[in-house]
Specification:
Length: 169
């Protein structure tokens, strides 16, 4: 099921008219306008094969980032659930991004939510440079539980429409 949302976000970032039209039907005029900015400044987005902690790779001349997509009917995702698979996946992504100085972005799609149903997050990566560092500072970080596991709370994320406005203006 998450592959549906991977394709959706891929189409949004690529400025695909058909996907933008469908996804913005319940958005406010401002959100819709921001989403459509990707048509003027699109990304090349590649879906990553396999489940290695990265679902999409977004590339454009001025910025690139790795994305992991999560979706849920509930507004909170605990990475410690499902035998800790999500936590191990996140830790691997963090190590790889540290090593390559690449920005990690988590996309959280809340199912059944009208308007902008996407929220974005990142995690702490040291030694990022340029626009990637600026973008990392703008994105909310994943929360960490007392036991050290990541938690993603949808309402604390950056709306995708705001992220796009920042990247495409």
């Amino acid at each position: 099921m998450s592959s549906v949302y991977e394709r959706e976000l891929k189409g949004i970032l690529e400025g695909d008219e058909k996907i933008l039209s469908r996804i913005t039907k319940t958005c406010s005029a401002l959100e819709k306008g921001n989403y459509y900015l990707t048509q003027g400044r699109p990304f090349i987005v590649v879906r990553a094969a396999g489940s290695f902690g990265v679902d999409l790779v977004a590339l454009r001349g001025d910025i690139s980032f790795l994305m992991e997509i999560k979706s849920s009917n509930t507004d909170t995702l605990h990475f410690s659930s499902v035998d800790g698979k999500l936590q191990r996946q996140a830790e691997k992504m963090q190590r790889e991004c540290e090593k390559t100085k690449t920005l990690p972005v988590y996309g959280f799609r809340l199912k059944g939510h009208g308007g902008d149903s996407w929220r974005l997050f990142t995690m702490e990566i040291h030694q990022l440079e340029g626009r990637a560092k600026i973008l990392q500072n703008r994105l909310p970080k994943l929360s960490v539980s007392k036991s050290g596991n990541y938690i993603m709370r949808w309402e604390k994320g950056l709306p995708l429409a705001d992220f796009i406005m920042y990247l495409c203006r």
